[in-house]
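Same chain as my last thread, 172 residues:
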Amino acid sequence: MTFDAQPTLTGDLLQLRPLQIEDYNDLYAVASDPLIWEQHPASDRYEATVFQKFFQDALDSGGALIAVDNNTNGVIGSSRYHGYNEAASEVEIGWTFLARSHWGGLYNGEMKRLMLQHAFRYVDSVVFLIGPENWRSQRAVEKIGGVHDGSRKDPSGMESWLYRIRAANFPR
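reply #2:
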């Protein structure tokens, strides 16, 4: 079965759906907050030119999802699937960000739970690659069951900490 990297997933708090070019202005309105990116390796992603590249990369990835608040129908962030590896039975979830108005765990928890439930229909393991200084994201992934499992370097040589959640350990 081929991995569906852009499903529509609906929870009590939010809906995730495939990112579209028409979502740019609404998503940039969220991403333009510098505090969202202060611990991120790309701490300048709030700048328009940097975000434009990020957005285009997200569209080109074929795995980007936009998060919409069910109560307001407003865009609150995004996430994406990346690097599906059928042989390793693994996929990455990353590039996640949420509006500060939706920080605190409930929305991120539901977003990741929906994405994990979907991913575990196809793979045995989901990984998250997080910058070593991004304590906020590390704690958020640990709250949903992520276990630190070493590190990985991207093609440019930047190291990220690897967190993993295995299907066998994920509550259904």
